[in-house]
Automatic annotation (TrEMBL):
Residue span(s) of domain Beta-lactamase-related: 16-383
Official protein name in the record: Beta-lactamase-related domain-containing protein
Xref: InterPro entries: Beta-lactam-related (IPR001466), Beta-lactam/transpept-like (IPR012338), Beta-lactamase/esterase (IPR052907)
Length: 388
């Protein structure tokens, strides 16, 4: 009997086939995928185990942690405020955050914060999960920190600092945490939280390592530096590398990203808890013009930076917070000109494509091998485009 449950339009059977194959070949523990074609939810599937320790099954409404998929939601909140004329995207940050103009950061714009050009890809000191819950203090800390390069002259993925940089656009201009603003303005009744209540944390899927990792072998390994992916793995293991410093600080603490301290805090860079159905509905509404005006979205997804990334050490491409197709946002050929969204470290993805009228959301609890992007997500996305 198949572990997969839910609904799939006959025209999108290829998506179900890929999803079932991922389980059959041992690539999943538990996962969910949703696809919208226009306003129609054509795929809403889930399966497997939500909590490996207890054997609790993944249910229709099981939320899952989305890692950096959160950044697209935070970016949308910031762009909504720009659309309303609250601040200028290409204007100086010091217009609304005067304390930020220290140590060579006086010329930083909001666009630099949103497109990973701030020069602040990592905190200068170790930060705990408990400290990271104090949004104002972490923003103040970054405001006082010197950049690692002149803002606007290069880009480097702000894996976690993004939340206290781009997220400060929202907090400074509304007085609300990103999660509260998002809920009030455009996620409404959707099962999507940046800062989850305890009852949501209790029934959420628990993140788990791959089977090989339990025997000590599924994490990135040191290997000869003869191609970009191997170089990425080596950098991840080097405590002094920009990549290691960016993705591991703040440290989530005991329990990793299952730590309730992190889940309650709702880091605006990587703190979203949601279901695939709700997350797909966010992209559905976004590409339909129900959250941002179409011209605002087009300006937001226009590529601002592309090429070598000072943090990731491989080529990346970003608009104003949204990933564009690149080595960290794998998309099929049909999507390469029009798709946008964001991947998450565990293999999750959220994708929108206004021209194709397609929204895709995929959330697994088995951590993938890749730091950003995952072949499970790619195969599902490829099947969704092929079904149009």
């Amino acid at each position: 009997m198949s572990t997969v449950q839910g609904h799939c339009d006959p025209a999108f059977t290829a998506v179900r086939d890929v999803f079932e194959q991922n389980f059959a070949e041992g690539r999943e523990v538990g996962a969910a995928v949703a696809v919208y074609a226009g306003d129609r939810k054509v795929v809403d599937l889930w399966g497997g185990v939500a909590d490996r320790r207890t054997g609790r099954e993944w249910a229709a409404g099981t939320p899952c942690f989305g890692f950096s998929c959160t950044k697209a939601v935070t970016a949308t909140a910031a762009l909504l405020l720009a659309e309303r004329g609250v601040y200028e995207v290409d204007g100086p940050v010091t217009d609304w955050w005067p304390e930020y103009g220290q140590n060579g950061k006086e010329g930083t714009t909001a666009a630099h914060l949103l497109s990973h050009q701030s020069g602040l890809p990592a905190f200068a000191r170790p930060v705990t999960a408990e400290e990271a819950a104090d949004t104002a203090a972490r923003a103040d800390e970054l405001a006082a920190q010197a950049p690692e390069w002149e803002p606007g002259t290069a880009h480097g993925y702000q894996a976690l600092t993004y939340g206290w940089l781009a997220g400060e656009i929202v907090r400074r201009n509304t007085g609300l945490p990103v999660g509260e603003f998002v809920k009030r303005e455009f996620t409404g009744d959707l099962d999507l939280w940046i800062g989850a209540p305890d009852e949501v944390i209790e029934r959420a899927a628990k993140l788990t390592a791959g089977r090989k990792a339990e025997g000590g072998g599924d994490a990135p390994r040191a290997v000869p530096d003869d191609n970009v992916l191997e170089r990425l793995a080596n950098a991840y293991l080097d405590p002094q590398s920009p990549l290691n410093r960016a993705v591991n600080n703040p440290h989530p603490g005991k329990g990793g990203y299952n730590n309730p301290v992190v889940l309650r805090a709702g880091w605006p860079s990587a703190g979203m808890m949601t279901t695939a159905s709700a997350f797909g509905a966010f992209y559905r509404d976004l590409i339909a013009g129900r959250i941002l005006r179409p011209e605002t979205l087009q300006a937001g997804i226009a590529t601002r930076v592309s090429g070598p990334d000072r943090t990731m050490l491989i080529d990346t491409a970003f608009g104003l917070g949204y990933m564009r197709p690149s080595m960290t946002f794998f998309t099929p050929k049909a999507a390469r000109e029009t798709a946008f969204g964001h991947t998450g470290a565990g293999g999750s993805i959220g994708l929108g494509d206004a021209e194709a009228g397609l929204a895709v959301a995929y959330l697994p609890n088995r951590m993938g091998d890749q730091l950003s992007g995952d072949l499970r997500a790619y195969r599902l996305t490829e099947a969704a485009y092929a079904s149009l």
